[in-house]
Structure formats: structure tokens, C-alpha cells
């Protein structure tokens, strides 16, 4: 028994050490990688449920570390936030997304790209002017860039955040609530938030086939959103059963592995914009 315990501790130590080493490597590399603009963007299509047509894509950040391989954004985005680098990372994403959107609009003029914003970016007074500069540099209307924000941003009462939200709305950037249903945003708040699109979190979509309560919730959220003039996007659609149920329930926009994984720009253009 004593031996087992020792072994247990040994593997715990080794695991912890591995995690610390990994974290140190990532911490060292991230500032350089952002500075050298070595992060890449992947694009996941968003599909109109009624026609199957391409509406746009969500922009997702990718990092390939020389030694560690691909690092998931769920790991490096929080790290960038902790290291005070999220502003720089976010700027890079915004500028690239604007450039890419302009290029692709030559093939599909109404294409819209959705960019994820960290709550910390909302604390920076320069957010709106930065976004305006990015779209103006490529002669894009602000409507070409949808901004995905989390419920927590909308529920916070900080002055900087409210000012940013007001400026972004006035400038004409469409706002989407990301991962809707996972936070604490009450449905009663929705009409006041001036958000044009709700992205229903993947956890709801996953349970559509198995949990009748979830099914009822999703149905009523879709109904409510329509009544107050909001769009609904279902995230994480993986099966035809989920797709067909969502279409029947009136969900207009679909996104998930059933249609495509997030793709590098070239692969996205070849597959969805008919570029060769
Ligand atoms: P998110 O904004 O909720 O993005 C959707 C995530 O779900 C992406 O993971 C996407 O690859 C994944 N996904 C899409 N369809 C499916 C599906 O059918 N099944 C499953 N299982 N997963 C699906 P990813 O790319 O790993 O990104 C994770 C999170 O990292 C994002 O969640 C977002 O919160 C954050 N993130 C990514 N890029 C950025 C960025 O440029 N800025 C900021 N602030 N956050 C980012
Ligand atoms: Ca998102
Ligand atoms: Ca999401
Ligand atoms: Ca998320």
C-alpha cells in the first residue's frame, strides 16, 4: 500500500512538473509570437439554415508552438489575458480579419466575419476606434465585422464597458452574445441589450437528441429571440438530426463540424468561396 501511495505521489509530481514546464515554455514564447505576428487564423463557416448558403465565418485564433505543437486557444487566450497581451493579440486578430474579409468580399459581397473579443478588450477605451480604423483601412462597412462577446461583459456595470458598447453600437458593429445560456444573462435583459445575434452554446445543441428539458428551453429561446427581432446561431451542430430539428424550430444560422471544422484561409476559400 505504501508503495502505491509513493507511486501515486511520484506521478503527481511528474505531472505537475510537466505542467509547470509547459506553462513556462508558453509564457516565454507568447510575447515573441505575438510580436512577430506568428499567430494564424482559422475560419469556420456559418450557414443559413433555410438555403444552406454561406453567411460568413467565425474567426478563431491558432498557435503552433515549435516544440509543443498546436496550443489550444482555451489555453493561450487566458494566458495572454494574464500576461497583459490580450490587447496586442486582439489587435492582430482584428487587423487580419478585416483584411481577409475585404479580400473575400470580392467573391461574396455580403460576407461577414465574426471576431471573438475578450472581456478585457472591453476595458480599453481605444477598442471602438481601433475597430473603425481596421474596417476603414479596407473600405469595409462596420456591418462586415460581427463582434462576439460573452454574457459577463453585458452584465457588468463598469463605465468603460458601457461606453465601449455604446460606441460600438453607434458605429454600426453588430454584436453577438457568445456561448449563450452558460452565463447568468437573464432572458428578461435581452430586449435592453441591443444585441443582434444570440449564439446558443454547444452544450444545449449536444443535448437536443437526449434531454427533453433542453429541447424545450432551446425551442422557447428561439421563439423569444424571434419575437424581439434577434437572430439565433446554433453552435456545435454535429449531426443531421440536430440540424433538421434546429431548422424546424426556426433557428436561422448554423455552425458546427457537420458543415466544417475551422479551416485555414486558403482551404476555406477553396471550399466555400469557389476560389481556385
Ligand atoms: P468559442 O468562441 O465558443 O468558439 C467555438 C469553439 O468551438 C471553437 O474552439 C471551435 O473550433 C469549436 N467548435 C466548432 N464547432 C464545433 C463542433 O461541432 N463540435 C465541437 N466539439 N466543437 C466545435 P476553439 O477554436 O478551440 O476555440 C476555443 C475558444 O477560444 C473559443 O470558444 C473562444 O472563446 C476562444 N478564442 C478563439 N480564438 C479567439 C480570439 O481570436 N480571441 C479571443 N478573445 N478568444 C478566442
Ligand atoms: Ca465565439
Ligand atoms: Ca461559442
Ligand atoms: Ca467559448
Describe the structure using short key phrases:
EAL domain-containing protein; alpha/beta; 8-stranded mixed beta barrel; 276 residues; binds ligand C2E
Topology, element by element:
Elements: H1 2-35, E1 40-48, E2 54-65, E3 69-71, H2 73-82, H3 86-105, E4 112-116, H4 127-137, E5 145-150, H5 151-155, H6 159-171, E6 175-180, H7 190-193, E7 197-200, H8 202-206, H9 212-227, E8 231-234, H10 240-249, E9 253-254, E10 263-264, H11 265-272
Parallel strand pairs: 2-4, 4-5, 5-6, 6-7, 7-8, 8-9
Antiparallel strand pairs: 1-2, 1-9, 1-10, 2-3
Helix pairs in contact: 3-4
The structure holds ligand C2E and calcium ion (3 copies).
One calcium ion binds near residues 148 and 178.
Residue-averaged pLDDT, rounded? 93
- Cα shape: globular
SS element count, helices: 11
Q: Please summarize the sheet with the most strands.
A: 8 strands, mixed, barrel
Q: How many β-strand stretches?
A: 10
The percentage helix is: 40-55%
Poorly predicted sequence stretches spanning 5 or more consecutive residues: none
Gyration radius (Cα, Å) is 20 Å
How would you write the strand order of the largest sheet?
A: 1-2-4-5-6-7-8-9
Beta-strand content estimate? 15-25%
Amino acid at each position: 500500500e505504501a508503495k502505491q501511495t509513493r507511486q501515486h505521489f511520484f506521478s503527481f509530481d511528474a505531472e505537475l512538473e510537466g505542467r509547470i514546464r509547459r506553462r513556462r515554455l508558453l509564457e516565454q514564447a507568447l510575447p515573441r509570437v505575438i510580436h512577430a505576428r506568428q499567430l494564424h487564423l482559422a475560419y469556420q463557416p456559418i450557414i443559413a439554415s433555410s438555403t444552406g448558403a454561406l453567411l460568413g465565418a467565425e474567426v478563431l485564433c491558432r498557435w503552433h508552438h515549435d516544440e509543443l505543437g498546436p496550443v489550444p486557444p482555451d489555453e493561450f487566450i487566458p494566458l495572454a489575458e494574464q500576461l497583459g497581451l490580450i490587447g496586442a493579440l486582439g489587435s492582430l486578430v482584428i487587423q487580419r480579419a478585416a483584411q481577409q474579409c475585404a479580400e473575400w468580399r470580392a467573391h461574396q459581397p455580403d460576407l461577414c466575419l465574426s471576431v471573438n473579443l475578450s472581456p478585457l478588450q472591453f476595458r480599453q477605451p481605444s477598442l471602438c476606434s481601433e475597430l473603425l480604423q481596421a474596417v476603414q483601412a479596407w473600405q469595409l462597412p462596420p456591418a462586415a465585422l460581427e463582434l462576439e462577446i460573452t454574457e459577463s461583459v453585458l452584465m457588468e456595470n463598469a463605465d468603460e464597458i458601457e461606453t465601449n458598447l455604446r460606441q460600438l453600437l453607434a458605429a454600426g458593429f453588430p454584436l453577438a452574445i457568445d456561448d449563450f445560456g452558460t452565463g447568468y444573462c437573464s432572458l428578461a435583459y435581452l430586449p435592453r441589450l441591443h444585441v443582434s445575434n444570440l449564439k446558443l452554446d454547444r452544450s444545449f445543441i449536444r443535448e437536443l437528441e437526449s434531454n427533453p428539458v433542453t429541447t424545450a428551453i432551446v425551442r422557447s429561446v428561439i421563439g423569444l429571440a424571434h419575437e424581439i427581432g434577434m437572430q439565433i446561431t446554433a453552435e456545435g451542430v454535429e449531426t443531421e438530426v440536430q440540424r433538421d430539428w434546429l431548422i424546424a424550430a426556426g433557428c436561422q444560422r448554423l455552425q458546427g463540424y457537420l458543415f466544417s471544422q475551422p479551416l485555414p484561409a486558403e482551404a476555406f476559400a477553396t471550399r466555400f468561396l469557389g476560389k481556385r
